[in-house]
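Key result, reporting period 2: structure in, sequence out.
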């Protein structure tokens, strides 16, 4: 892969900004750019400090986070798209090139965000009885937050939040089942602004306490070279096999996704290497783009970092983050296996070769040059699996990134990790006498590097810029989480979630009755059909909602509405949460708004819609697996009543079913498949995937004639003089 064929880092970043609205920042005049960069650096430094040396009081911590996030959005996002890409000159009505109104909104947002922490000592007396000042500041907070969210993530989420507030106010005028007593504006503001059920609720708390830190860690880990190490290792492992670059894409995206958690970032970063190579090898452009984008959507479901929704599960379910990691492991593997199987069959069908030894990196050289970059991830996992909080693990991971990035000396890297491991073993990792010197040492490396020479000064600038970029990645997520708090607040205020649950289950029951009128009742049960169609309807809503709102917001909304629905059927909460999470992520490769697929298509010069359709087909593992773990929860490992026989049966059946379905889609298994064979193994895949030994054996039996014929065809083709 020559440099001429690779997208530059700048091109990749511009693509990310083009397709990810959360990264679309307007250009700034130099003075304002330095101000914004300083504020972003301060935001990252605030979270880094509190993660290691103690969080502030809950309301204060969230209020400071909100003040930074919402205030900064008005400075870095323009009100109109036409103004987003042009550098405006400074005028008295546009200081620093930013309209005066945006400066006013930024100041208003900061004041409204800090008002609740300011009156905290009196808050217990204000809740339920807000003063006129409370209502004014709350209104200001809601208005600025809605506008900030519109700028940061687009229209859909603000429209949903505004519509629900209108619904809460005009409750008596609502039709039928949606009618409720209604609430005055004062009561709405009280509930959303002064209580922990609204803007300052769990979603904002999770972003301010967990998500921000892991976004920052991912950016810094990429800066010090961990992402490049993962891609090089993927090349060493998978590059020599048939269709090598496509398999590098899958392995690389899986590894890179562990530290990224962003579908679009994965696509443009890993895809800058793999998409051109796939096209050169002979893959169609749309298929190359689809492979990369589908594999990249696995970043949000791949432990240990995952996406923001994983940390929300910790709060919503009240379980340890390590339990979420364990639950996510097998379903994530199934997703990547599904993509891998289809890529393999397509490569064999087209006779595509792997990469030669000259085209691949030397594995020993890769490890020799990049092993130090693994230390931050090792430090994070060591702390995390030792029972400490996720944000403390992120703190030590970030510290390790700083030390590795600034020192570049193997002895220092080894010494740091040994000291940290001993501190964990002796339980002193949280002691100030241990953590303060370690942080001061990292800062000292930065000062020494700055004074030493230009090369080390560049390293210091790169690490500092990582703090700035990490905050950039997180501000839109923070605004979206606070707006989702409005949605949750209205749902709890009006009880509309239970009404929606009733409508969904009623519709599913009606569809089930329609099926029973055609199919004999002895084969299917009324309750079973109702559950199945409830799951189908929930999945469809998740995908549709995901077309307009970020994955995190989609997850929170659907959990608020769908979790009570699925609970009616006895589905465990962790299973319900993973179900909506998976289908929310799937929206990134589901037309008509498949942002990750469109980013890949842009890099490949392919048709976006065709790329999206192919990407959805490649994501069959992610489509099927949520239904598998609903009916076979043992796949998630941490569910109640877990046992190894159920786990092994469910997992093996799923693997076989995904393999059969992949071969059916590709038209190739061990040899080319006839039309009737594709249909037969495609049908056989469904009972095979279904949890349970009986159904799996039935599917295998149905597919066995095709498998036997494939084996014979492969042997004939391999025999000399035959085929």
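The corresponding designed sequence is given below.
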């Amino acid at each position: 892969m020559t440099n001429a064929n690779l997208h530059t880092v700048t091109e990749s970043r511009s693509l990310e900004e083009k397709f990810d609205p959360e990264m679309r920042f307007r250009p700034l005049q130099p003075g304002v750019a330095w101000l914004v960069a300083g504020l972003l650096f301060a935001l990252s430094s605030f979270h880094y400090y509190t993660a290691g040396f103690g969080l502030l009081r809950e309301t204060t911590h969230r209020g400071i986070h909100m003040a930074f996030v919402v205030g900064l959005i008005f400075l870095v996002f323009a009100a109109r798209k036409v103004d987003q890409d042009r550098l405006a000159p400074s005028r008295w009505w546009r200081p620093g090139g930013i309209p005066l109104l945006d400066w006013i909104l930024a100041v208003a947002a900061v004041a409204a965000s800090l008002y609740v922490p300011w009156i905290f000592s009196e808050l217990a007396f204000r809740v339920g009885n807000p003063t006129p000042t409370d209502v004014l500041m709350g209104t200001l907070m809601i208005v600025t937050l809605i506008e900030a969210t519109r700028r940061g993530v687009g229209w859909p989420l603000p429209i949903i939040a505004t519509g629900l507030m209108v619904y809460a106010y005009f409750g008596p005028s609502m039709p039928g089942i949606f009618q409720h007593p209604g609430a005055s504006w004062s009561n709405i503001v009280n509930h959303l602004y002064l209580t922990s059920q609204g803007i300052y609720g769990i979603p904002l708390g999770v972003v301010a306490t967990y998500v921000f830190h892991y976004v920052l860690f991912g950016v810094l880990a990429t800066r010090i070279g961990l992402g490049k190490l993962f891609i090089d290792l993927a090349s060493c492992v998978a590059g020599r096999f048939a269709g090598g670059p496509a398999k590098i894409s899958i392995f690389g995206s899986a590894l890179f996704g562990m530290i990224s958690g962003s579908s679009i970032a994965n696509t443009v970063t890993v895809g800058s290497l793999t998409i051109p190579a796939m096209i050169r090898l002979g893959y169609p452009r749309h298929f190359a783009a689809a492979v990369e984008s589908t594999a990249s959507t696995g970043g949000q479901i791949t432990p240990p970092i995952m996406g923001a929704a994983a940390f929300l599960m910790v709060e919503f379910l009240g379980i340890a983050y390590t339990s979420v990691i364990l639950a996510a492991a097998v379903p994530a593997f199934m997703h990547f296996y599904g993509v891998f199987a289809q890529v393999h069959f397509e490569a064999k069908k087209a006779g595509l070769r792997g990469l030669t030894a000259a085209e691949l990196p030397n594995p020993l050289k890769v490890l020799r040059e990049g092993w130090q970059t693994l230390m931050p991830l090792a430090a994070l996992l060591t702390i995390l699996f030792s029972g400490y909080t996720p944000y403390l693990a992120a703190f030590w991971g970030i510290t390790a990134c700083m030390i590795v990035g600034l020192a570049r000396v193997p002895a220092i890297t080894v010494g740091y990790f040994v000291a940290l491991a001993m501190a964990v073993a002796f339980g002193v990792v949280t002691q100030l006498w241990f953590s303060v010197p370690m942080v001061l040492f990292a800062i000292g490396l930065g000062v020494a590097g700055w004074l030493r020479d230009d090369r080390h000064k560049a390293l210091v600038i790169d690490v500092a810029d990582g703090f700035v970029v990490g905050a950039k990645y997180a501000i839109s997520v923070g605004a979206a989480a606070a707006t989702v708090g409005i949605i949750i607040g209205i749902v709890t205020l009006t009880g509309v979630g239970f009404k929606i649950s009733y409508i969904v289950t009623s519709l599913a029951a009606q569809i089930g009755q329609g099926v029973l009128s055609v199919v004999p009742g002895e084969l299917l049960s009324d309750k079973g059909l109702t559950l199945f169609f409830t799951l189908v309807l929930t999945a469809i809503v998740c995908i549709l909602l995901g077309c307009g709102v970020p994955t995190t917001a989609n997850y929170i909304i659907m959990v608020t509405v769908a979790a009570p629905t699925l609970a009616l059927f006895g589905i465990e909460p962790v299973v319900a949460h993973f179900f909506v999470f998976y289908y929310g992520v799937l929206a990134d490769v589901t037309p008509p708004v498949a942002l990750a697929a469109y980013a890949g298509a842009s890099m490949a010069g392919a048709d976006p819609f065709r790329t999206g359709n192919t990407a959805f087909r490649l994501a069959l593992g992610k489509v099927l697996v949520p239904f598998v773990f609903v009916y076979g929860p043992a796949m998630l490992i941490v569910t109640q009543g877990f046992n190894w026989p159920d786990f092994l049966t469910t997992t093996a059946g799923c693997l076989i079913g995904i393999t059969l379905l992949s071969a059916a889609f590709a038209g190739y298994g061990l040899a080319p498949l006839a039309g009737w064979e594709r249909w037969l193994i495609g049908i056989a895949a469904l009972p095979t995937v279904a949890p349970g030994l009986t159904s799996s054996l039935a599917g295998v039996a149905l597919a066995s004639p095709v498998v036997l014929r494939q084996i014979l065809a492969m042997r004939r083709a391999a025999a000399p003089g035959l085929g």
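Confidence is low (pLDDT under 50) at residues 1-8. Residues 14-204 form one domain. This case is discussed further under Risks and Mitigation.
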